[in-house]
Amino acid sequence: MNEIKEITPQEVENKLDNNEDIKVIDVREDDEVAQGMIPGARHIKLSDIPQSVDQLPKDESYVMVCRSGRRSMNASEFMKEKGFSNVSNMEGGMLKWDGELVF
């Protein structure tokens, strides 16, 4: 199994602040997302990932996010298996996110 790279919430925030080309995908449920999302993140529930990955370009850099980092790790592993080469998991999930939120 390919090792999934983990990225800290601070590193994600720095990349977003520096306008680096990363795509943040939030795999939490609707009620969790209603409590706030990382600005610019795209919401695709974990259960919707299998049918949604075909619509995502494989050459982009993705950071997967959930509440604690476990579901997003599952999503990251699934995407790696589907041929996405640049997928990271945000360590600790939204529980560790100190940055701005959008509602």
From TrEMBL:
CDD domains: RHOD (cd00158). PROSITE patterns: RHODANESE_3 (PS50206). Gene3D superfamilies: Rhodanese-like domain. Residues 18-103 form the Rhodanese domain. InterPro entries: GlpE_sulfurtransferase, Rhodanese-like_dom, Rhodanese-like_dom_sf. It comes from the Bacteria. SUPFAM superfamilies: Rhodanese/Cell cycle control phosphatase. This is Rhodanese-like domain-containing protein. It comes from Halobacillus kuroshimensis.
